Amino acid sequence: MKLKVTVLPGDGIGPEVIEQAVRVLETIAGISGYSFEFSEHLIGGAAIRAFGSPLPRTTLDACLGSDAVLLGAVGSPEYDRLPAHQRPEAGLLLIRRALGGYANLRPAISYGAITACSPLRPEVGRGTDILIVRELLGGLYFGEPRGFTGTNGSTTAVNTMRYSVEEVERVARVAFDAARQRRGKVTSVDKANVLETSQLWRQTVTRVGGDYPDVLLEHLYVDACAMHLITNPRRFDVVLTENLFGDILSDEAAVITGSLGMLASATIGGEVGLYEPVHGSAPDIAGQGIANPFGAIASAAMMLRHAAKLEQEACDIELAIEHVLEAGYRTPDIAHGTGGYVATTAEIGELVSEAVTEIVDMRHAYHAV
Known about the structure:
14 strands; ten-stranded mixed sheet; single chain; 43% helix; Isopropylmalate Dehydrogenase; alpha/beta; globular; 2 domains; two-stranded antiparallel sheet
């Protein structure tokens, strides 16, 4: 197995968490004899400082020429006054579009060891395991026309929500395929009582669902879904929704896990997949060694699953994360109410790597008996 990975540490805590994700991947490679080639490039604010662009051509070319892209975080407040297309976040939107990934997979898992750090009552959140499938290349974030018109105090801003049948169908099939590998249920989220785009969304998802008789399909309005995510999260298996709704609901799902730092993501469907933790750059804690790397490490596991088809190795990393949490190790954001030892970012990376080694050794010993 050979895997060429472009690493984009990005801004803020991005470099800190990605360093630990790469450490875990190197552990997997060393154990299994795989060849993972890592090439690091700049994006976001770091790229603006070096090249004057949030997505330099060299970075884009490296990403397009790789098997997978592993990204940390993008965003730097020093550039907030720049026009939108020149800010660090523009680099993220551009790379998503360039790579062509239209389906963003965002798991939200309640780990038993840190259930108490969620503001939800343990009996509400415990056992939750949701996969949010967010359409990533359509809707308000990319629709045209957009922009500002008018002058002299009468300025008007316009954004366009636009979807085609083809865009909805392809991401719906990702959700239904995922549900077949999980618990067999898809909840499609829209606002079909108000929006024509949602009416098209619902019609298309219903039609696609007919090709999956073994998967239960339900429809929910986005406001109702937002409520049920908090009051009864275990009712969900796979949540399928459009770009804006998915952005909001997946961040809300962080309440279930206890921290945004626990959330991983994979963007698939294009020629090259993009793997990144959901959290932002968190510049207020950058460089302090307290950032939560679990989301970045879990994103690396998703990269192995989807880019390299290494399901066992992906499961090994995910199990190692669980073991480290059960052993009582925490970063500050998930330490409240859970006890245990508050570890640094680097210590968590080392602990997960050690746990991966132990898990693989145990499996090999079992098969040798």
